[in-house]
Amino acid sequence: MKQNALTLISEIEDHQLEKLRTLFSSRKEEFAGELGKVGTIQYARLVIVDKHTNQAGEVFAAQLVLSSNFDGDPDQQIQDIVNKIGPTLDLIYAHIKGYDKNNKLEFFRKSRTKEAAFYQGSPHRTLEVIRQEKALHQELFDLINSGNWKGKSASEIHESLKNSVFSKPEFAWAKKNIELPGINYLMAGFSILIIILLLPVIIIWVIILQVFHENKDVPLGLTPNQLDLKTMEHLEKDEDFYWQNQFSQVVDMKPGMMRIVTLLSFFALARVLVKAIFVKGKLMGIPTIHFARWVMINNNKRVLFFSNFDGSWTQYLGDFIDKSGWGLTGIFSNTRYFPKAFMLVTKGAYNQRQFLAWARYTQIQTQVWYAEDKGQSIKNINNNTAIRNAFPKKLTEAQAQKLLSWI
Amino acid sequence: MTIDKKDIQGFLLKGYGKMRATRYFLLRITEPIPAKKWLEKLSTTVSDGEHKPAEKCINVAVTHPGLVALGMSADNLKDFSKEFKEGLDTDHRNRILGDLGTNGAENWEFGYNKMRANKDPLFTEDNIHFILMVFARDEEILKTYCLEIEEELKDHKLEILVPLDGCLLEDNKIHIGFRDGISQPGIEGVDSDKHPNNTVATGEFILGYKNEYGVYPDTPFIYDNKQGDVSLLPLDPGGSGKRDLGFNGSYLVYRKMEEKVDAFWGYTNEKTKKENGEPDINESIKLASKMVGRWPNGSPLAKFPDKMPEGMSNDDNFGYQPDDKEGLKCPFGSHMRRNNPRDAFEDNSPELSVKLTKKHRIIRRGRSYGEPLISTPTNHHAKNEIGLHFMCFNADISDQFEFIQHTWANFPRFENLYNDPDPITGVRDVAMTGEKLVQNFTVQAEPVNKCYKDLPIFVSVKGGAYFFFPSISAIRYLSTI
Predict the structure, then answer these.
(1) What is the pLDDT of residue A230?
(2) Domain ranges across chain B
């Protein structure tokens, strides 16, 4: 089954904003638990995007974003949410403009906004599969640690483990492999070809962008030590209670059609890459990201970015610079305050001090945060799958040894 | 690039290995004017980076409350790093550093921010303002020198909160029984004798130079040019035109850490005992070495996986690729491998691993405290508390010390591990929210990995603080504000 992303965006009544904020801060754990009750959600969050005036003086009303990663089909997900946690939604959405509790389905269908790009760290694995594979790993770990394997070869141990595990009916599912997406070389090659063909246009485009836009744009220009301590405290108070963390961010587009076209082209490329190449648990080489999504909001005037990652914020952002600084720069240099880029994909994020400050400056609070298992790392999830797919097979001694090293 | 070692306090560039006895004074300013007089005098007596002390020397560092107490203006304080301004003890920092439960700041001997808990509105009464580090060749010299220093502190109305005695033990071992401080990064432009993989950009340790990202680390600029004699300070090398108070300085992290050697050897003895229940000394030492990543004499497991070679070792010239990619020699979870992954960080190429690792190095400066016990499987009973005055230098506390402690030492999912914190410095007795506390140490092996369960705390935090370690010009400047 496929995992999909759902992003529901609605407008908060002006006079209800503070009430909603208070509601979230007093009952965030309870609401997170409710999202879990839907039963098909892997990750979800409720985020308030505050009222905002952009550079051009346009005013955007405060918005509530409900986003989820779930198993199955988006419309089914909307129905599930409505059917399973309707009363909670009524409580929250009572603060929302145009909400009609007697006609929830239609309201949520209308508030759906498509993601511009969506990456998942463990594609094709449903909640059930993730739970099963975790249990299999634990079972194998316990068997290995309680057995005496002196003098046995890896193949013999593997066979013995197979006998034990498959004698238990609850592991019958493990006899069958799970199908995983492979790297789609054809699609990757094809997109590279298109880029090569378009190269003359791209180069001219980038030069125009540099001369007429980037040269004039003003970056935030701060370093992390110059940020307001209170803002940082506000964000950090929700971080590092679990080994997994969340990141929510909203940024203004820089003015001009060129910026929008550039960004949308990048997202088109990103959509191809996440389908064709980044299907093995790494986004641009970064192995700690559970998911990442970009959503254009307010008529392409602003960009939302949501993600879950393992470990520390510092590592997360540092990894981005080291491994995909150019990609990040290509995307976010089209948005306001980003450190100055050169020719679209250089400098920018590589200005480490300014980049870190920009990331914190544009980060927003995640009011309600749900994940099925905030302790499990994405590497563990993928390792469990690797174990599951190797385990039922007939393995050579070297393959069996490899498998045992994963446990 | 020339680095003016005479402007840098010596402890940043050298470990003062010949100075076997130390005393660290944690000080509080009671009156700013005499304190500044003291700094003025100190600026002529602190040991610089060229100085090779034969008998004794001193270095000094200051906390954020210390700068406030000296009267530094808010404008001139604002560019100090967030970590330094907030101090070691904040709720969030406790979580990332693992300072919870037994290690919790409320149990510390000093450095606990009482202001935060609102227990004591007069929090400044025990705030640490300075650390004065006194080094001497031996106990005798130290004693005499400290008498003189104490007199001077009294004259300048500096209150001694705690005197902390320390020493270097035989063979530079620490109480836990292992040779320490072998792997130190070389500083570009200062150390020419280190391997390029182990030579790190100057700006990772000294403010005012470029770091491994190719940018200048954050540094405290002067905004209020009327405060003090700013002509004593150099201009920002980045070209902003501002005076740079941080130039040739660094940040110093200090943590007092108790070493529970009884628990340590008790655990390894128990886990390796023979079938008849007798202890197996060799196996106990081997397990302990697997946890550390080196043998007690300092030899790296990556080179000597089976048996400890003779003599003492300073061997720092090795990596984990390609010979130990699987962790069969030096386990992935060992203290040394995870705190400095060298050329094997995650599944990156050796070149990329080195590049990434270099962004998270620290210069360590440890001194032991308590009776001079170097413990072994058969001798691990200390009469009183023993431990380590852990210190390290870094230009960016968040990206270096805190990164290492959080992302590498504490994070139990490090590499492909599941429930393995750093067995030496990452074990805790408080679980993360909603989790059961499971703490193992895995020795990668064939045909199956060997997992040692239920790690207890071997090292516990007893106090500490974040300091700014000023250049000698900056000390002089601070005396004029």
Answers:
(1) 87
(2) 5-255+464-478
